Amino acid sequence: MSIPEPFDQGWLDVGDGHRIYYEQSGNPQGIPIVLLHGGPGDGSRPSNRRFFDGQIWRLIMFDQRGAGKSLPTASLEANTTQHLLRDIEHLRAHLDIQRWAVSGGSWGSLLALAYAIAFPQNVLGLILRGVVLGGRDQVDWWFQGREIVFPDLHKQLRTYLPESEQHSLLHAYHRRLIDPDPAVHLPAAQRLRAFMLPMTRLVPAASAMAAPDPQHALNIGRLWTHYCMNDFFLPADHVLNHIRSLHTLPAIIVQGRYDMVTPFRAAYRLAEAWPQAGLIDVRQGGHSADDPAISDALCAAHRDMAAQLSEHS
């Protein structure tokens, strides 16, 4: 499937000194769908347009506060989940969309769920990949638990720090990433990104072994640790405690069985609490949307969602 080019793009002032970049592609008269990128801090990627049939969908992608082309870059000022939820609503109103489907991967899956819980009347359906529920167990896995699978990578992450700080990697890296001195925050961002990248795909691509782009690494590292430090600015078990409010929405969960970033358990727990949601167990999939099996499953999930929405329109 060819990757559609944007027919509209721009920056939207959402207040607090932030301007978010957005673009629209596909069919202007198609089913509206907004894609929520991961990270936090990763930014939208043009290649992700390939998951959406350009004749069926009116695809809206945007860069969340501090990410991608949004300004100011890597800013933590007024940057919480509640701010992002308001930004999504601001963008929906700006584009004069009454209701839209929501697709989100990794951190974007948690943001999509939080948005649907806050504004269910504005959501047509949900497509989720690599489920994040925002619990402390997932944060612990990211910074400590993966040592059992990637001891070599974890050693590089850990030994970058003085021994006195190695007991709390999240706090130690967060302190460095928010330091105003580039000589402090940039190397820390690159080390953290070098730890994360090889784990995103079932079979790592050569690009995962290359030196990370410093600015992109800073965007992700600073925002990701900021959100982890603050429990994603959501109450404990927020999604599972409110999942009943989404039981009338069509939903599809795409989850790699061998996802080393967001292991299968979170998606399984979500599906157990939300039997109306279809769980696609991708047996040859890791975390990244670029894993071939995950890519195929995402294309199929968006086709299936479009068929469901067209059937009930």
Automatic annotation (TrEMBL):
The record's listing under Pfam families reads: Abhydrolase_1
Record carries keyword Lipoprotein: no
Record keywords: Aminopeptidase, Cytoplasm, Hydrolase, Protease
**What species was this sequence derived from?**
Allopusillimonas soli
Broad class of enzyme this protein falls into: hydrolase
**Catalysed reactions, as listed in the record:** Release of N-terminal proline from a peptide
Task: List the GO biological process terms.
Answer: proteolysis
Domain of life of the native organism = Bacteria
What cellular-component terms does GO give this entry? cytoplasm
Which compartment or compartments is the protein found in?
Cytoplasm
Q: What is its main location?
A: cytoplasm
Catalytic machinery residues: S106, D259, H287
- Which family is it part of? Belongs to the peptidase S33 family.
Q: Name one GO molecular function term.
A: aminopeptidase activity
Q: What is this protein called?
A: Proline iminopeptidase
Sequence ranges assigned to domain AB hydrolase-1 in this UniProt record: 32-288
- List the SUPFAM superfamilies hit by this protein, alphabetically: alpha/beta-Hydrolases
Q: What is its EC number?
A: 3.4.11.5
Which ranges does the record mark as transmembrane? none
